[in-house]
Write a structure and sequence with these properties.
- By secondary structure, the chain is mainly beta.
- The protein folds into two domains: 9-141, Thrombin, subunit H, CATH 2.40.10; 153-286, 3-layer Sandwich (tm1086 (SG structure) fold), CATH 2.102.30.10.
- It is 9% helix and 29% strand.
- The protein has five helices and 17 strands.
- It has a six-stranded antiparallel barrel. Strands 9, 12, 13, 14, 15 and 16 form a six-stranded mixed sheet that branches. A three-stranded mixed sheet has the order 10-11-17, with no helix packed on it.
- A hairpin with a 5-residue loop joins strand 14 and strand 15.
Length: 302
């Protein structure tokens, strides 16, 4: 059993709304020099959800579920930074307006650059949402600590989700954490060096086919828990031999050099006190499916 300070962790109500798809309205160029014009960040992604493959989409940096902001016109200004920092993976999300009012989902993580909070809802809910609807997040998790494991730092993690992750304490006092994939340090790219991991993400580079095949990186799904080897996220995203970081995948593979599936930090340690355990089912959907609720108004329900 993990002992935490959950009873002292602050819970905020955070209001947001779906953010429309974004585009720079110009060609991009991939890491092979090939131009592309494809769907990318933002939007209510009707047919892309947690548990789906993060690879193979006709898109770049595609975000599953519903991409949310507190203010779509000013993503880098208050109150959106507060939404990004205080909303955590596993937090309950509740629709409070429109045709899907009363429906419930959960937070997957957050995507830096776009400054989007990624929220999972059932498809039936997404099909009823509009970009003026309001969503309330029960923001809880920042400040969460493991009382018996002070070497391990937690970020962006709802206490309830932590309790569902099937983490075991070994005889040596380490934490054995189920993950779908172990990612070598050399693959971590865009976002590396950022000093604050309480928002945003950083990317697993997928431009080297041999490495992708060797570590089965192309099998990664949205919502997977993954282990970033030799990466210390306690005070920013940095390389440190022997360190381990556990994160959750929040956006798709990317065509741009230095990019790939995005990972939001959950647990991190400068020493090998975290032991990744490969488990193909280590995905947020296997832990949170009971938290999804569909409620549609009488005028729209079928």
């Amino acid at each position: 059993m993990l002992h935490t300070n959950e009873d002292r962790v602050v819970e905020f109500l955070l209001q947001c709304q779906p953010g429309p798809p974004r585009t720079r309205a110009r060609w991009g160029v991939d890491h092979q020099g090939i131009p592309y014009l494809l769907p990318s960040i933002g939007g209510i992604s009707v047919n892309v959800a947690a548990g789906d493959p993060a690879f193979g989409w006709a898109g770049d940096h595609v975000e599953p579920g519903v991409s949310c902001t507190a203010n779509t016109e000013k993503p880098f200004e208050h109150p959106n930074p507060s939404l990004q920092v205080f909303a955590c993976a596993g937090n309950m999300a509740r629709v409070i307006s429109g045709e899907a009012k009363g429906s419930v989902g959960y937070v997957i993580g957050h995507h830096g650059g776009s400054e989007h909070l990624i929220v999972e809802f059932p498809r039936a809910v997404k099909e009823r949402l509009c970009y003026d609807d309001k969503i309330m997040i029960h923001g809880k998790g920042q400040g969460l600590k493991l009382l018996d494991h002070p070497e391990i730092a937690l970020f962006n993690l709802d206490p309830a989700l932590l309790g569902r992750m099937h983490i075991e304490v070994t005889e040596e006092g380490n934490l054995r954490v189920p993950v779908t994939t172990k990612v070598p340090a050399a693959c971590m790219g865009s976002g590396l060096g950022v000093s604050n991991v309480a928002s945003g993400d950083y990317d697993i580079m997928t431009s080297d086919p041999e490495t992708v095949e060797a570590f089965a990186l192309d099998k990664i799904r949205f919502g997977d828990f993954v282990a970033l080897l030799d990466h210390d996220n306690r005070f920013g995203r940095a390389y440190r031999k022997g360190a381990i970081t556990i994160g959750i995948v929040v956006h798709s593979d990317c065509r741009t050099a230095g990019h790939g599936p995005g990972v939001t930090t959950l647990l991190t340690c400068a020493t090998p006190k975290i032991e990744p355990l490969i488990d193909p089912e280590a995905n947020i959907t296997t832990l949170m499916s009971d938290r999804l609720q569909v409620k549609l108004t009488e005028t729209t329900a079928e």
